[in-house]
Amino acid sequence: MGKSSFKMRQLPMAVVCIVMLFVLFRTINYEYYQEEIEKKWSFFGETMSQENADNFAKLKGLPQGIVHATSNFELRPLWLPSGLRSKVSDYSNRNLLAMPVGITQKNNVNDMVQKFLTGNFTIILFHYDGKVDEWSGFDWSRTVIHIAAQNQTKWWFAKRFLHPDIVSTYDYIFLWDEDLGVEHFSPSRYIEIVKEEGLEISQPALDPNSVEIHHRITVRARMKKVHRRVYELRGKTKCSEESQGPPCTGFVEGMAPVFSRSAWFCTWHLIQNDLVHGWGMDMKLGYCAQGDRTKNVGVVDSEYVVHKGIQTLGGDLTKDASTKTPPTKHGLDVRTEIRRQSTWELEVFKERWNRATSEDTRWVDPYKSDQRRFRRRRNSKRLS
């Protein structure tokens, strides 16, 4: 009886020791993870500080008060009445819409521009067909920025003309395709929602009747204002509560992304200068979400658009944009060639990402540790 009682007293002590060891292990593990994250950001901060120091050194010939380090896309008059010259302009345009356009879609582009002008947006049109004068029939044509380059993509334009230093005065950057129906979309209301929800990267939901829908998470949820994840148990990609990354959560598509100023700073650096189609970037945008991508990336359901799926870039721009006939050039199916190029660029982007993550010994993937913690939590539930 005495030995049995002694063993019973020993048992709780063993349990307490095990619990204490487990807590100690988790604490050390967490501190190590935090230390790695801090090292990463410390290194990044040191690099940025060095770059800033180098830039300031280049400016040493100027008095500090004359340095004007930012710019924007606000149009300025060639002259002003003498009584207005000394007055400081207070621009109300705090957001930017940048969009690649072709003249064959001028009617839909007109509808989109009219919507955004009512929300006091600065608007840039990237003319991938090189045609600018043909837009002069619209009253708003003189109030927007026109940039033309033949057969260039949205990401080519964005990398070259939307540098973070130039767009730093704008709170949100809308980088949209031209084939979106905006009958059910209010830009001002959309901005209110993303601010309320704390979304650093977002997109409007797609009407279920859209011509092209590539990812289930982008489809509008009728009873919600915003959603951040999707549940899908059919098909190759299964999305459940256990899913911790794209395309189940922390994901927006490339057709209508909206970025906060900070998220765009990161995204611009993610865009590869020579990979002009941008394939693969959507899966990595969550790394630019300024925190937890499952919280800071979302799809706005109450303000939604219709994706019309009209492709004109690289085609015969003299034809109706709605034609389904594949454009050809010198016997080639241009659409097929563009898709082949995009697929090749996707593989190159993946290779670059994998090489960068393996070579940067200071970089820590925050989402891998999340996945490990989630798996441990799931396994512990199964055991219990």
TrEMBL record:
Record-linked InterPro entries: DUF707 (IPR007877)
Superkingdom classification of source: Eukaryota
Pfam families: DUF707
Protein name per Swiss-Prot or TrEMBL: Lysine ketoglutarate reductase trans-splicing-like protein
Organism: Arachis hypogaea
The organism's taxonomic lineage, starting at the top: Eukaryota, Viridiplantae, Streptophyta, Embryophyta, Tracheophyta
